[in-house]
Every structure is written in C-alpha cells, then in structure tokens.
C-alpha cells in the first residue's frame, strides 16, 4: 500500500520548516547537493564500493562531562545521602519550571509514570482508553496494567501520530481517557485532541516520554492534558540511565501520585519514613539522588541540543524531500518546536525499483548511515492484550460477552499503521542530528546513490 500525500499539506509543511534562516535549502541547492552522485556512478558500498560516509563515527550517546555530570554525581556520593532527598526535589522543581507545569514528580521510569498516572486518575476496570498503535509498549501496557481496555486509533502516516480525525468514531459510553503519544518527539495535534476530550468529558494522559521541550504554539508537550509523562532512560534526549516524571497543574493529583510512589504515605513524607500511616495502596517508585544529579547535569545541555536537532532536522528534511520515494515527517502547522528523538521518514519502494525497506536500510548502513525500522509491529497485534483478556482477572471483572477478543481485534485494525510499521517507516537516531552539515549532505547523497543503484542492489542482494 502506498500512502498518498495531500499535496497542499506537503507544500505547506515544506515552506513551514521549523527553524530559521539558512537552515533549509531551496530546491535548486538541494538538487545540486544530491547531484554529486548522479555523475559518479560509484559502486554501492554493499558491494565493496567506497561508502559515502567514511570520515568519522557518529556522536556517541550519552554525552557527559567531568565538570558537570561527574561533579554532581560525586557530590551526592560524598554526602552519603543516596535515597530520595533534596537533589530529587531540586530536579523535580527544575523539570516543572522547564516544562511550564505547576508540579512534577520524579519516578523510576516512563513506564511507571504512565502506570501511576492512570492509577491515580482512577482509570481502570470497565474503562476504555484510546491510544495509538505506533508507539513503545509502555503506552499501551499501562492501560492493561490498570485493568482497562485499549482502543486503538489509527495513525496519520504523514505525521506518525494518532489521527485526530479518527478519534471520535472510537468513543463509546465506556471511554474514559485518551493517551496521545508524541512519538519521536513530534507533537500530536493536542489542540484538536483536547477539544475532543472536552467535548466528551475525557481525561488525557500525554505520553511525552520522547517529547522533552517539544511545543505547540510555545506550550510544552506534557502540559496540555491532566498528566504528562516523561522518560529519561539511557537512549533518551535527556538520559539518566533510568528515570521518569509526571507533570501536572493539578496539585491534588500530583500529591496522590507522590503518595502512591512512596508506599501510600502522605505527600511530603521522605524516603525511609516509618509509621506515617498510609493513605492508599502504594508502591515504591522513588528515584535516587544519583539519578537526579545526572538529570540536573543533563538538563543543562538539553535546550541547546534541542535547538541544534531542530535546525539540523529541518536541513536534512529539505534535502531528502527532493528524493522521489522519500517522504520525511510532517509537523502540524501549530508546532513551534519538536524534540526529534528520532528523525523519521517514509520509504516508498515503488520509487526504488521495488527494493524492499530491509534491503534499502542495509545498503544505507553500508554507505555509513545509521538507520533502522524501529517499531515493526503495531501494538494492536501484541499477544499480551489477548492474554490479558483471557486472564482470570479480566474474565472475572468484565461481564461475559464484553470481552470478545476476536471482535475486539476486528474493531481495532489499523491498516495505515500496519503499512507504516511493516513497510515504510525508517528511523535515524537523535545523536545523528547533532552532526555537521556535511553529514546531512552525505546522508542525502547516500540515499540518492542507493536509489540510482536500486536495480542492481535488488538483483544481487
Ligand atoms: C513513547 C514511550 N512511552 C513510554 C516509554 C517508557 O519509558 P521508560 O523506558 O523510561 O520506562 C518509552 C521509552 O522508550 C517511550 O518511548
């Protein structure tokens, strides 16, 4: 299946590149850069030819420095206070300020930020929660973890996000919440999603686990819904190793989350408090002072790196969108900034002499371009959902007849997402976006080179 792109929208987005002056090339200059391989006819690197990129390795991730990260870490170690205390509180305060939320609670990871948010919004048994199939498993497992039923809304392949046009038809009297996932750090269409949520009185938990500092109309992702969840896992743009956060303007909700993350003790009780009397069923999701120290150090470079990724993504996009069959991500018109955890594009093999996505990626990797396909199975197809439905708990809690997996599977088909994940999506990691202009010229040239040699690669490989 081929995605047909609405020309008007692509044109708009082409002109509406995010960042400024000089970052984006006009078509003429892009063609000049791409043309350097047209004349060369060089052998594809996959057949032993010279790779387009030979000069250097890509930026390593994570980045840390002795004078910031190591210094902060050592201070914590030497203090002897390693469990949750003032450094964690400082990190929470800073993250809330940076995101523009009233409150923040740091937790062990993004997965549990989502689990806890749903639990403390009392989303659970009997509820349906709308979510995208194009995401990491935690965006969906949090629904099942809390005993609710995931309902999938197919994607808009141009933006890779939940398609707002498809939300309303999925709403039933049992729908309680929407989980928009700003996948790759490209914002979902939050203004429309919030309007729908208001119309149907639904809760919204934003999975902003890849969307640090991304914005719509200068408002940060994570601050639109009832809760915003973040991940600081090692591969993320603000890496701590493991870590997560919940942000919200609702003090009562964050206090509940705090209590939940500390054995059900009231807000403000410290790590290791005994006999405080528990308010509710809780668990232990506290991060350590070490993690918060690294988080504070990483936070110092996030703003600058995010700016660089935006400039470079716009530049790379302006080059590769001139290559037939390569369709880079689109942003909704109201997006003022993206986070670019991944630079995604659609690959259309029809324009590459039928060369499969796998072969295209191998040829690109041989040319020195790190790329992959990422999520290659929609979460609506994952066995854990069927297993949950058939589990004793679900069978006990849900009325007979409501949980018919086969009917659910039929109703939750997402054909556009299937096409995206199994055939067309290609990812380039955020570290690459910290490279140089020459790197991006080379990536585009490598694509052109593979395209020119597609027939040969297809036959011989
Ligand atoms: C979209 C999304 N949601 C949730 C998570 C879960 O975060 P963590 O790995 O910190 O548990 C991730 C992490 O990869 C993610 O990318």
The gist of it:
The chain has 461 residues and is α/β, with parallel strands linked by helices. It is 41% helix and 13% strand.
Notes on the structure:
The structure is a single chain. By secondary structure, the chain is of the alpha/beta class. The chain is 41% helix and 13% strand. It contains 16 helices and 15 strands. A 7-stranded mixed β-sheet has the order 1-11-10-7-6-2-3, sandwiched between helices. It is globular and about 75 Å long. The model is unreliable at 1-22 (pLDDT under 50).
H/I helix tally: 16
Structural class given helices, strands, pairing?
alpha/beta
Strand content: 5-15%
Shape: globular
Spatial order of the strands forming the largest sheet: 1-11-10-7-6-2-3
Helix fraction? 40-55%
The small-molecule ligands in this entry are: pyridoxal-5'-phosphate
Q: Which tags fit this structure?
A:
461 residues, alpha/beta, seven-stranded mixed sheet, 15 strands, 13% strand, globular, binds pyridoxal-5'-phosphate
């Amino acid at each position: 299946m081929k995605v047909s792109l609405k020309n008007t929208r692509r044109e708009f987005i082409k002109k509406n590149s995010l960042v400024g002056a000089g970052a984006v090339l006009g078509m003429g200059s892009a063609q000049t850069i791409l043309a350097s391989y047209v004349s060369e006819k060089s052998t594809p690197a996959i057949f032993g030819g010279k790779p387009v990129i030979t000069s250097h390795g890509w930026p390593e991730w994570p980045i840390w420095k002795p004078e910031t990260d190591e210094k902060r870490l050592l201070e914590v170690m030497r203090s002897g206070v390693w469990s949750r205390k003032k450094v964690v509180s400082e990190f929470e305060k800073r993250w809330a300020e940076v995101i523009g939320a009233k409150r923040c609670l740091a937790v062990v990871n993004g997965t549990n930020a989502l689990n806890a948010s749903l639990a403390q919004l009392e989303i659970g048994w009997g509820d349906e929660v709308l979510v995208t199939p194009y995401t990491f498993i935690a965006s969906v497992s949090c629904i099942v973890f809390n005993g609710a039923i995931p309902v999938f809304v197919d994607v808009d392949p141009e933006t890779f996000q939940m398609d707002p046009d498809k939300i309303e038809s999925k709403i039933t009297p049992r729908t309680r919440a929407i989980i928009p996932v700003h996948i790759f750090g490209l914002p979902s269409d939050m203004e429309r999603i919030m309007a729908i949520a208001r119309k149907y009185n639904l809760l919204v938990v934003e999975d902003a686990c890849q969307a640090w500092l991304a914005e719509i109309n200068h408002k940060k992702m994570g601050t639109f819904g009832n809760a915003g969840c973040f991940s600081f896992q090692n591969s993320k743009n603000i890496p701590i190793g493991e870590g997560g956060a919940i942000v919200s303007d609702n003090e009562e909700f964050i206090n509940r989350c705090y209590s939940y993350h500390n054995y059900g003790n009231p807000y403000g009780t410290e790590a290791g408090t005994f006999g405080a009397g528990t308010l509710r069923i809780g668990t232990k999701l506290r991060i350590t002072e070490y993690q918060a120290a690294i988080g504070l150090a990483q936070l110092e470079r996030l703003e600058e790196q995010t700016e660089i990724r935006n400039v470079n993504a716009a530049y790379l996009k302006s080059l590769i969108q001139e290559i037939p069959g390569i369709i880079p991500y689109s942003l909704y018109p109201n997006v003022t900034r993206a986070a670019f955890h991944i630079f995604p594009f659609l690959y259309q093999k029809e324009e590459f002499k039928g060369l499969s996505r796998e072969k295209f990626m191998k040829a690109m990797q041989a040319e020195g371009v790190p790329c992959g396909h990422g999520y290659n199975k929609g979460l609506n197809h994952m066995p854990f959902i069927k297993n949950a439905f058939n589990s004793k708990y679900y069978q006990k809690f849900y009325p007979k007849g409501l949980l018919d997996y086969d009917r659910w599977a039929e109703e939750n088909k997402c054909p556009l997402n299937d096409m995206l994940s199994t055939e067309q999506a290609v990812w380039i990691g955020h570290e690459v976006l910290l490279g140089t202009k020459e790197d991006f010229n080379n990536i585009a040239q490598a694509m052109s080179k593979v395209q020119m040699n597609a027939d040969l690669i297809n036959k011989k490989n």
